[in-house]
Amino acid sequence: MIMLHLKDMSVSAEAAIEAVLNAPPDRPFVVAQLGQSLDGRIATLSGESRWINKDAALDHVHRLRAAVDAVVVGAGTAVADDPMLNVRRVAGSNPARVVIDPSMRMQPNPKCFDGADGARRVLINACGGAAPAGVEVIQIPRLNGQLPPRAIVDALFARGFKRLLIEGGATTVSSFIDAGVVNRLHMLIAPVILGSGKPGLTLRPLDRLADAARPKTDVYVLPDGDVLFDCHLKD
Predict the structure, then answer these.
(1) Listed residue (232, 177, 203, 174) closest to 3, CA to CA
(2) CA neighbours within 13 Å on the CB side: how many for 32?
(3) Which pLDDT belongs to residue 5?
(4) Share of the chain above pLDDT 90, in %
(5) Averaged over 115-123, what is the pLDDT?
(6) Following DSSP, what letter does each residue of 178-231 receive, concatenated?
(7) Contact 170/157 with Cβ under 8 angstroms?
(8) Coil, strand, or helix at residue 68?
(9) In this predicted model, which residue has the larger pLDDT, 62 or 5?
(10) Do 174 and 168 meet the contact criterion of CB atoms below 8 Å apart?
(11) What number of helices (H) and strands (E) belong to the chain?
(12) Distance (Å, rounded) from C-alpha 59 to C-alpha 224?
């Protein structure tokens, strides 16, 4: 049976951040996040996604960034959005910025690899090779054509990145959930219906409804109407 805990309006979603900050230091702790519409879309058919969620949800994402050691995105997000992946909307330190780019298709100087703030920058690929100045390269062999999420988490943990935020895109988040390496999923739902567009999570198909994951979930209604589902996927 699903365990759903609707928090009192006076209880801040900061409690979801505290769970990340208080994660055990002796093993990796991975939190993934997605922002989507009521009907499970993260973008329109044309690819427009800014902004499905409102300000409070965006603030929450920046608090997550400030709470982790590294924020991780796939090459698709790096190419499509060219995000900075730093902390701008709240107080806090910028995390390390990690891009998973197996085939080196990312543009040469993405914003997230700007080293002006001193944060570490990491490129994960399958082929090694050159990277922008100051960017660390981690080479991970492909497994069944993909870079295995568990190997990525282990490699980052070995380099001191204990708390990880898997921020996007949907394919990357889905692959980390399917691999069983995500401790918490923060799903930010906006009260908007797109009717069509790019779906959020796309996981391995199930044959039976009984096999569906039903995690313990804390629910926070944010001040401007978006809703945060903090799903406990594993300890």
Answers:
(1) 232
(2) 28
(3) 59
(4) 80
(5) 96
(6) HTT--SEEEEEEES---SSSEES------S-GGGS---EEEEEE-TTS-EEEEE
(7) no
(8) coil
(9) 62
(10) no
(11) 5, 12
(12) 11
Torsion, CA 35, CA 38, CA 39, CA 42, rounded to 10:
-20
What confidence category does residue 12 fall into, taking pLDDT thresholds of 50, 70 and 90?
confident
Q: Which two tokens stand for residue 13?
A: 């979603």
Residue with tokens 């990796």: 28
Tokens representing 99?
Answer: 């891009």
202: tokens are 């796309």
In this model, does residue 109 exceed pLDDT 70?
Answer: yes
How wide is the angle at C-alpha 233 spanned by C-alphas 226 and 80, nearest 5°? 55
Region 104-128 average pLDDT: 90
Task: Enumerate domains of the chain plus CATH numbers.
Answer: 4-232 (3.40.430.10)
